[in-house]
Amino acid sequence: MISFIVLLWLSCHSALKLGKDQTVKTEENFKQHITVLRDRENGSTTLLGASITMVISLVAVYFVLISKDRFLRIKDRSHIYLCQYSFIQEMDNYLTGMYRFNRAIEVAYIASKTPPITSEGKIAHRAVQMAQTVYHYSKIKVVAENKWCNRNQKLMLTASTPYIRNIILVPKRDEIGRAVMRKKKWKTVLVGDYILLTNSIVTERGILKTQTVEEVPLS
Asked: Based on the structure, what is the number of domains in the chain?
Protein backbone atom coordinates (compact mmCIF):
# COMPACT_ATOMS: atom_id res chain seq x y z
CA MET A 1 0.00 0.00 0.00
CA ILE A 2 2.79 2.38 0.93
CA SER A 3 4.61 1.45 -2.23
CA PHE A 4 1.50 2.28 -4.26
CA ILE A 5 1.19 5.69 -2.59
CA VAL A 6 4.86 6.47 -3.20
CA LEU A 7 4.55 5.41 -6.80
CA LEU A 8 1.46 7.55 -7.21
CA TRP A 9 3.22 10.56 -5.66
CA LEU A 10 6.21 10.11 -7.92
CA SER A 11 3.96 9.88 -10.93
CA CYS A 12 2.12 13.07 -9.99
CA HIS A 13 5.35 14.87 -9.20
CA SER A 14 6.82 13.83 -12.54
CA ALA A 15 3.67 14.92 -14.35
CA LEU A 16 3.69 18.30 -12.60
CA LYS A 17 7.38 18.82 -13.35
CA LEU A 18 6.85 17.85 -16.98
CA GLY A 19 3.90 20.19 -17.24
CA LYS A 20 5.93 22.98 -15.69
CA ASP A 21 8.81 22.35 -18.06
CA GLN A 22 6.45 22.37 -21.04
CA THR A 23 4.88 25.62 -19.79
CA VAL A 24 8.31 27.23 -19.47
CA LYS A 25 9.26 25.96 -22.90
CA THR A 26 5.98 27.25 -24.35
CA GLU A 27 6.58 30.66 -22.79
CA GLU A 28 10.08 30.75 -24.21
CA ASN A 29 8.81 29.78 -27.65
CA PHE A 30 6.11 32.44 -27.40
CA LYS A 31 8.67 35.07 -26.37
CA GLN A 32 10.93 34.04 -29.27
CA HIS A 33 7.97 34.26 -31.67
CA ILE A 34 7.05 37.72 -30.35
CA THR A 35 10.68 38.83 -30.72
CA VAL A 36 10.77 37.59 -34.33
CA LEU A 37 7.50 39.37 -35.12
CA ARG A 38 8.76 42.55 -33.47
CA ASP A 39 12.01 42.41 -35.48
CA ARG A 40 10.03 41.87 -38.66
CA GLU A 41 7.76 44.78 -37.79
CA ASN A 42 10.75 47.02 -37.07
CA GLY A 43 12.33 45.97 -40.38
CA SER A 44 9.11 46.67 -42.26
CA THR A 45 8.77 50.05 -40.53
CA THR A 46 12.36 50.94 -41.42
CA LEU A 47 11.82 49.90 -45.06
CA LEU A 48 8.57 51.86 -45.25
CA GLY A 49 10.25 54.93 -43.74
CA ALA A 50 13.13 54.68 -46.21
CA SER A 51 10.69 54.34 -49.10
CA ILE A 52 8.68 57.37 -47.99
CA THR A 53 11.89 59.38 -47.53
CA MET A 54 13.04 58.40 -51.02
CA VAL A 55 9.70 59.39 -52.57
CA ILE A 56 9.71 62.74 -50.79
CA SER A 57 13.30 63.36 -51.90
CA LEU A 58 12.47 62.56 -55.54
CA VAL A 59 9.42 64.85 -55.45
CA ALA A 60 11.53 67.62 -53.90
CA VAL A 61 14.23 67.21 -56.57
CA TYR A 62 11.55 67.26 -59.29
CA PHE A 63 10.06 70.51 -58.02
CA VAL A 64 13.52 72.04 -57.65
CA LEU A 65 14.30 71.18 -61.27
CA ILE A 66 10.94 72.53 -62.43
CA SER A 67 11.48 75.75 -60.48
CA LYS A 68 15.00 76.12 -61.87
CA ASP A 69 13.73 75.60 -65.43
CA ARG A 70 10.98 78.20 -64.95
CA PHE A 71 13.45 80.65 -63.43
CA LEU A 72 15.87 80.22 -66.35
CA ARG A 73 13.03 80.68 -68.85
CA ILE A 74 11.84 83.85 -67.14
CA LYS A 75 15.41 85.15 -66.95
CA ASP A 76 16.09 84.37 -70.61
CA ARG A 77 12.83 86.00 -71.72
CA SER A 78 13.34 89.13 -69.63
CA HIS A 79 16.94 89.55 -70.81
CA ILE A 80 16.10 89.10 -74.48
CA TYR A 81 13.25 91.64 -74.27
CA LEU A 82 15.44 94.11 -72.40
CA CYS A 83 18.16 93.57 -75.01
CA GLN A 84 15.69 94.29 -77.81
CA TYR A 85 14.11 97.25 -76.00
CA SER A 86 17.44 98.96 -75.29
CA PHE A 87 18.51 98.34 -78.89
CA ILE A 88 15.34 99.97 -80.25
CA GLN A 89 15.76 102.94 -77.92
CA GLU A 90 19.34 103.39 -79.12
CA MET A 91 18.37 102.92 -82.77
CA ASP A 92 15.64 105.55 -82.43
CA ASN A 93 18.27 108.09 -81.35
CA TYR A 94 20.69 106.74 -83.95
CA LEU A 95 18.19 107.16 -86.80
CA THR A 96 17.41 110.71 -85.74
CA GLY A 97 21.09 111.63 -85.51
CA MET A 98 22.03 110.01 -88.85
CA TYR A 99 19.08 111.71 -90.56
CA ARG A 100 20.21 115.13 -89.29
CA PHE A 101 23.78 114.46 -90.40
CA ASN A 102 22.50 113.55 -93.87
CA ARG A 103 20.63 116.86 -94.05
CA ALA A 104 23.81 118.68 -93.03
CA ILE A 105 25.76 116.77 -95.71
CA GLU A 106 23.23 117.91 -98.33
CA VAL A 107 23.70 121.54 -97.30
CA ALA A 108 27.51 121.20 -97.26
CA TYR A 109 27.44 119.52 -100.69
CA ILE A 110 25.42 122.39 -102.14
CA ALA A 111 27.87 124.84 -100.56
CA SER A 112 30.81 122.94 -102.08
CA LYS A 113 29.30 123.58 -105.53
CA THR A 114 28.45 127.23 -104.91
CA PRO A 115 31.10 129.90 -105.58
CA PRO A 116 32.62 131.77 -103.81
CA ILE A 117 32.38 129.32 -100.87
CA THR A 118 33.34 126.22 -102.82
CA SER A 119 36.52 125.46 -100.87
CA GLU A 120 34.88 126.08 -97.51
CA GLY A 121 31.91 123.98 -98.61
CA LYS A 122 34.21 121.06 -99.54
CA ILE A 123 35.93 121.24 -96.17
CA ALA A 124 32.56 121.33 -94.39
CA HIS A 125 31.30 118.49 -96.57
CA ARG A 126 34.18 116.20 -95.58
CA ALA A 127 34.03 117.29 -91.95
CA VAL A 128 30.32 116.50 -91.62
CA GLN A 129 30.85 113.05 -93.16
CA MET A 130 33.67 112.34 -90.71
CA ALA A 131 31.53 113.50 -87.81
CA GLN A 132 28.71 111.26 -88.99
CA THR A 133 31.09 108.28 -89.18
CA VAL A 134 32.30 108.95 -85.62
CA TYR A 135 28.68 109.22 -84.46
CA HIS A 136 27.88 105.95 -86.24
CA TYR A 137 30.78 104.17 -84.52
CA SER A 138 29.76 105.52 -81.12
CA LYS A 139 26.26 104.08 -81.51
CA ILE A 140 27.58 100.72 -82.68
CA LYS A 141 29.81 100.66 -79.60
CA VAL A 142 26.81 101.27 -77.34
CA VAL A 143 24.96 98.37 -78.97
CA ALA A 144 28.01 96.11 -78.62
CA GLU A 145 28.23 96.91 -74.89
CA ASN A 146 24.56 96.29 -74.11
CA LYS A 147 24.58 94.48 -70.76
CA TRP A 148 21.30 92.68 -71.45
CA CYS A 149 22.50 91.00 -74.64
CA ASN A 150 24.71 87.96 -74.89
CA ARG A 151 27.60 87.77 -77.34
CA ASN A 152 25.64 86.30 -80.24
CA GLN A 153 22.82 88.81 -79.79
CA LYS A 154 25.30 91.70 -79.80
CA LEU A 155 26.83 90.44 -83.05
CA MET A 156 23.37 90.12 -84.58
CA LEU A 157 22.31 93.62 -83.55
CA THR A 158 25.53 95.34 -84.60
CA ALA A 159 25.03 93.74 -88.01
CA SER A 160 21.38 94.86 -88.13
CA THR A 161 21.75 98.63 -88.02
CA PRO A 162 19.49 100.46 -90.49
CA TYR A 163 22.33 102.01 -92.50
CA ILE A 164 24.39 99.99 -94.97
CA ARG A 165 28.08 99.63 -94.08
CA ASN A 166 31.18 98.35 -95.77
CA ILE A 167 33.51 95.67 -94.43
CA ILE A 168 35.11 98.01 -91.86
CA LEU A 169 31.72 99.25 -90.65
CA VAL A 170 31.97 102.64 -92.39
CA PRO A 171 28.56 103.80 -93.64
CA LYS A 172 28.06 103.40 -97.38
CA ARG A 173 27.45 106.78 -99.08
CA ASP A 174 25.55 107.93 -102.13
CA GLU A 175 26.76 110.29 -104.86
CA ILE A 176 26.58 113.38 -102.65
CA GLY A 177 28.03 111.75 -99.55
CA ARG A 178 24.92 110.89 -97.55
CA ALA A 179 24.81 107.61 -95.56
CA VAL A 180 22.59 105.11 -97.37
CA MET A 181 19.76 103.42 -95.49
CA ARG A 182 18.61 99.90 -95.96
CA LYS A 183 15.05 99.31 -97.10
CA LYS A 184 12.36 101.12 -95.16
CA LYS A 185 11.48 97.84 -93.49
CA TRP A 186 14.15 95.74 -91.80
CA LYS A 187 14.22 92.96 -89.25
CA THR A 188 16.26 91.91 -86.25
CA VAL A 189 16.40 88.35 -84.96
CA LEU A 190 17.49 87.53 -81.42
CA VAL A 191 18.03 83.93 -80.33
CA GLY A 192 17.92 83.07 -76.65
CA ASP A 193 18.14 79.77 -74.81
CA TYR A 194 14.38 79.25 -74.81
CA ILE A 195 12.84 81.76 -77.25
CA LEU A 196 13.50 83.41 -80.58
CA LEU A 197 12.48 87.06 -80.89
CA THR A 198 11.96 88.75 -84.25
CA ASN A 199 11.31 92.46 -84.60
CA SER A 200 10.07 93.96 -87.87
CA ILE A 201 10.90 97.68 -87.95
CA VAL A 202 9.49 100.29 -90.34
CA THR A 203 11.15 103.66 -90.88
CA GLU A 204 9.90 106.75 -92.68
CA ARG A 205 12.18 109.60 -93.73
CA GLY A 206 14.89 108.18 -91.52
CA ILE A 207 12.67 108.05 -88.43
CA LEU A 208 11.51 104.93 -86.59
CA LYS A 209 7.77 104.62 -87.12
CA THR A 210 6.49 101.19 -86.10
CA GLN A 211 7.75 97.84 -84.94
CA THR A 212 6.17 94.41 -84.66
CA VAL A 213 7.60 91.88 -82.20
CA GLU A 214 7.03 88.15 -82.62
CA GLU A 215 8.07 85.56 -80.05
CA VAL A 216 8.74 81.93 -81.00
CA PRO A 217 9.41 79.34 -78.24
CA LEU A 218 12.42 77.10 -78.87
CA SER A 219 11.61 74.47 -76.26
From this structure: 1
